[in-house]
Amino acid sequence: MNNIKLQAPVRILVAEDDELIQAAFCLLVQSFEGIELAGTASTGVEVLEQSHSLKPDLILMDLRMPDMNGMEATKRIKAVLKDIKVVALTALEDPLQITQALESGMDGFLLKKASPRELKLAIETVMAGEQYLSPQVSGIIAKAFLEERNRKHIPTPTLTPREKQVVRRITDGMRMKQIADELEISERTVEKHSEKARRKLNAATTSEMVAIWLRMQ
Predict the structure, then answer these.
(1) Any idea where the domains of the chain sit in the sequence?
(2) What is the pTM of this model?
């Protein structure tokens, strides 16, 4: 993932109701090469208005804002402006909130205490068309998943050797084409193995599958 190159400039809208946090993220965004600040919003309604007028490439979306929360705003934006990417920002480490945010159509999830390096990686990953969950968020989801599995006494599913090879490489940040080249199989076959593994692990997304896999190890 570290070698992803952005199609510059990537225009970012920062949606955050806390003035100090908003200012901090704006400064970070402006410090990144190939990324520029398109605008800011402090409420859910402002996010909708700015999204339609500015048409940013990506929104850093606070989940808790006045007028309308970030999840509802994301649903409304995605219904009309499907190409806009949305990365959730939150201080809460709640697995249910994380799951709900991803189900609302968000492309990534980042804790507000994340480092500048991780923020940039999240932007690059999402703009490359992939979902991003920080390692901390992945761990939170995985822990909740395994606790629920243990509570219900559900046996851990068994992956085939090939499925394990694919999941390991996805976990290492490799793209589908890279995995296909290394394993000498087609990209379509890689995708099939990934999809089968995801279903066996009962993961809603590839990121969740990675989180569960890491926890299993």
Answers:
(1) 10-133, 140-216
(2) 0.63
